[in-house]
Specification:
It comes from Streptosporangium minutum. By secondary structure, this protein is of the alpha/beta class. It contains 9 helices and 8 strands.
Length: about 220
């Protein structure tokens, strides 16, 4: 199966290199996506541009695909399911949840000259970064790309209720499956409250398992 891999804020397609290398021998075709504005040199990209890039990769596949979104890009994966519900076999959310219709994509940190740069590690101290040593932090931050304002502040539009028929897997890194279920039950993730089939998978990592546990993440994706 083709597995589309979509990184969250500041990540380009290379963030998935080790996961992709492990998925191939497991019988799948990994398709890491470098999103417009996150690795192609553009600072004017919009969320629509990023959705278009994901859909282009999806449409290039011969059969149904599994779409994997990490962190903020869980919303991008869900937008793909909304746009092509008949072509998406499964959506996997890694360390995040999709935004609701009418919500903003990722307006989390200050904008500086039209982009949202990585704000430093301060906001992520705790379970998110517990498995990152100083060298890994330095290497990650040096590779990351500021996110265009047109992506971060975009309004999410979901239109096709067939998305709720697409099976979902939630990979839980810095939170537990029990916590994720509690948040859904409490109404904190309205989109997932309406999904007909959800599975939860635990992985013992911080927020970036593609960096710290790539082989284990690849195995979990293959099993999914």
């Amino acid at each position: 199966m083709d597995i589309l891999l979509i990184g969250g804020l500041w990540l380009d397609g290379s963030a998935w290199d080790e996961v992709a290398a492990a998925l191939g021998p497991l019988g799948h075709r990994p398709v890491p996506i470098t999103l417009p504005g996150q690795g192609d040199g553009s600072t004017s990209a919009t969320l629509d541009d990023q959705v278009a890039a994901v859909l282009a990769a999806l449409d290039a596949a011969q059969d149904k695909v599994m779409v994997v979104g990490h962190s903020a890009a869980c919303t991008l994966a869900w937008l793909a399911a909304d746009a092509r519900p008949e072509r998406v076999a499964k959506v996997v959310f890694v360390g995040g949840f999709p935004a609701t219709d009418g919500g903003t994509y990722a307006d989390f940190f200050p904008i500086d000259e039209g982009v949202m740069p990585f704000p430093g590690w301060g906001p992520f101290e705790g379970p998110d970064t517990a498995d990152l040593d100083e060298e890994t932090r330095r290497r990650m931050a040096a590779a990351w790309v500021p996110v265009p304002e047109g992506v971060a502040k975009a309004v999410v539009s979901l239109t096709d209720e067939r998305r709720f028929d697409v099976p979902v897997v939630i990979v839980c890194p810095e939170f537990t499956p029990a916590q994720a279920q509690e948040w859904i039950d409490a109404g904190d993730v309205p989109e997932l409250a309406r999904v007909k089939h959800i599975d939860f998978v635990d992985i013992d990592s911080g927020h970036w398992p593609m960096v710290t546990r790539p082989t284990d993440l690849a195995r979990l994706l293959a099993e999914a």
